[in-house]
Amino acid sequence: MLNRSAKQGVVIFLLAFCFTLAVSAYNISDKDVSIDFDTAIYTGRAICPEVNVRHLTEGKNYFVTYTNNVNAGRAVIMVDDVNDSCPTVYRYFDILPCNISNAEIKLSYTEATFSGKSKKPSVTVTFNGKVLKEGRDYTVSYKNNKKSGKAQVIVKGKGNFCGEAVKYFYIRPEKVKSLKVKKKTSGTVTLTWSRVTGATEYRVYRYVNGKWKLAGSTEKTQFTVKKLSSDKEYKFRVRAVCKLKSKKLYGRYSKVLRVRTRLSGNDKIYISPKGNKYHRKNCSYIKTNKKKVTYSYAKSKGYTACSRCFD
Ligand SMILES: [Zn+2]
Question: Please, what is the Cα angle at 295 between 267 and 303, to 5 degrees?
Fold first, then answer.
């Protein structure tokens, strides 16, 4: 027979045994563990699928640890019982790269003037408030950026990013150069200039009553301005245009070219009986004894232009 204290000892032992059994009932069985998703897309922040263990409560019976759960790749979830009395249960989920088109892409400029070299605006890519790093998160390439028109910046995802995004920018044509007079008459002026790469059209402007007005446009590098008055000075300038479907890109204006039209037969000029030149009214070569005649008369008599008053 056991004495009283021995009996108490047995009871305590049995109680302890039952308690241990009760605790071991918290043991986490692999088949009872579930997670609420097993694939996710990269967000730049830690991703934590919710873990469920049948019949048990997180914090009270078990705790969950996540690793490798920010970057694209396989993330690990470890489920351990609070007493650390059974093996860790592992679960995995995949973080997939995010399409780069979800990022905000900004170019340092969206319009520029062609300068003979390829144009390359710099690119800033921001995702969820963070500035991404070229080379690590994306690569940049350019297309159609060596002439005027619509150019492309292609941003290709890398690492945590996939896919590609395209941004556009515009290159205006170069300034028109070498604007010259090819031919002039008493009523017309024919202008020429150098070809501008990428230009689809040229616009010729004439200065009229204090304002620049469009005189006409051409696809060629030559244009004749008509209906001008004889012996009058005109000012012209030209700019290149690159016409796109949705937009027109204008180059800078050429320098201003001043041209005086030729005399017409009825224009009045001045001759002196002794000389063989014809002059304008105020020419210092013929202050006295001048005679007003028509240009056609002077020409018929063999008079030629005075170099001081005619260019
Ligand atoms: Zn003169």
Answer: 150
